[in-house]
Amino acid sequence: MAETIGAILMDPPVMRRNLAADARKMRRIIAEDPEWSLAVVPLLTNLCLEHIVSNFEAKPMLDDLLPSHKAYVLEKLPPSLPLEVTANLISDEGYWKKCCMERWGLGDVTAYGNSWKRMFFERHLEIIIDLFIPDNTDPKTVLDMVPLCKNYVKKLSISQLLPPIKDPQKADDDDSSDTGSDSGFDGPSMDHFDFGILLDKLIYLEELHLVYGVKGCGMNFEWNLFEFTFRDCESLAKALKSCKTLRVLRIHQSKVDNEKCRLLVSYLLDHPSLQDLDLSHNLIGDRGARAVGKLLNRSRMRSLNVYDNQIRGAGAQALAYALAKNTSLLTLNLRLNRLGDEGGQAIAQALTKNQTLVSLHLGANQLTEPTAIALSQALVQNSTLRSINLSCNRLGVDGGKVLEEGMSHNGAVVDCDVRLTGIQQESEVCISQILRTNQSKTRKKQTQEPNIK
User: What Rg do the C-alpha atoms of the chain give, in angstroms?
Assistant: First the structure.
């Protein structure tokens, strides 16, 4: 037995294994950091980039980095960084998509020219204006944004404009005073946000949509929350004149009446870039329509929407006079007014001279057979009109027949809406057949044009 033990001890491999086993039993080496591992020690480059990210607000560094390092930093930057730091420094769309997604969730970037950065700054500025309270909100909140967003804002859709907050104490004093001079009245300096401080600074602004009203007023509803004052109109008109890049202007549901319409038009005459004007859902009557007709003669507008107003025959005649001479307008929407046959016949007669209008909407205008006769005569001569809407009028059986006769001599119109007009079903079917024939000719012509070129 002794000899066997000695032999084992004298055997070096066996001895080493035994010594190692004894050492493991005696002591374990434990690292101070249990997560430390040589395999995951970061590169010095990554450590430097992480330092840049964590100190970006104090010392922004981006343009001096290599492209791969720049992409790494942009991926790591948080969207909560101040706009004063990121606005004019970061152009990466991925970063601005991250900012938009965090703030508003999923959005349709195609409505913003497929630019996430433009989407962020347009929506951000819209919210600031939506929440602006005259004489309460500091105008600096808007002006400080201008240097940051002016290069990216092309369209503003303002869904509400808040009025000043009325002091309850002053309101009680005003109500209790039956006799008193207004000379000492200390009212608000403005009725709604003054666009005069902003529009001339947005050097790329092309579209402006406005609603002078309040969203979700609830139980605090008052009519003065939906008031577009003359002072508002004057300041807006001056601001629009200074915005030389504006192409599209929409002021709807804002109680724009004749006087305000005339004032707006007086500042828009000879505007260098205005193409589309939408004054729908307002209170414009004949005097306002005459002003708009004057604007048609002094501009290069392509689209005019004045539907749901109070335009009657005299106003329609003024518009028709301008339409007969106009060479730029493509779309005219007059639905939901009160043109009557006086206005409908005037518009129809203008179509015999106009050679540019493509779409005309005369729905719900109290039109009857005399207008149908005038339109039938115009369709024989006009070769540019493609779409006409006469729905919700009282053309009657005879009016339908004469309209069918005029359509039979027209090869250009591809859409004619005669629903709820009182015409016979036979006339409606005939008009539909004529439209299908015109549509087929139009498609054939469009397919042949590329081959000709």
Answer: 36
Spatial separation of the C-alpha atoms in residues 161 and 131, rounded to whole Å: 8
The pLDDT tens digits for 308-317 are 999 999 999 9
Q: Please report which residue ranges of 190-257 form alpha helices under DSSP H.
A: 230-242
User: Which of 362, 371, 386 shows the shortest CA–CA distance to 441?
Assistant: 386
Residue 73 has pLDDT above 80, yes or no: yes
Q: What is the distance between the alpha carbons of residues 191 and 232, in angstroms, rounded to a whole number?
A: 6
If you search the block for the tokens 């209170």, which residue do you land on?
Answer: 283
Give the model's pLDDT for residue 109.
Answer: 95
Other CB atoms within 10 Å distance of the CB of residue 202: 22
pTM of the full structure: 0.84
Question: Helix H segments across 31-139?
Answer: 44-54, 67-76, 83-86, 93-104, 116-130
Strands, sheet with 303-305, edge to edge from the N-terminal-most edge strand:
155-158, 207-210, 248-251, 276-278, 303-305, 331-333, 359-361, 387-389, 415-417
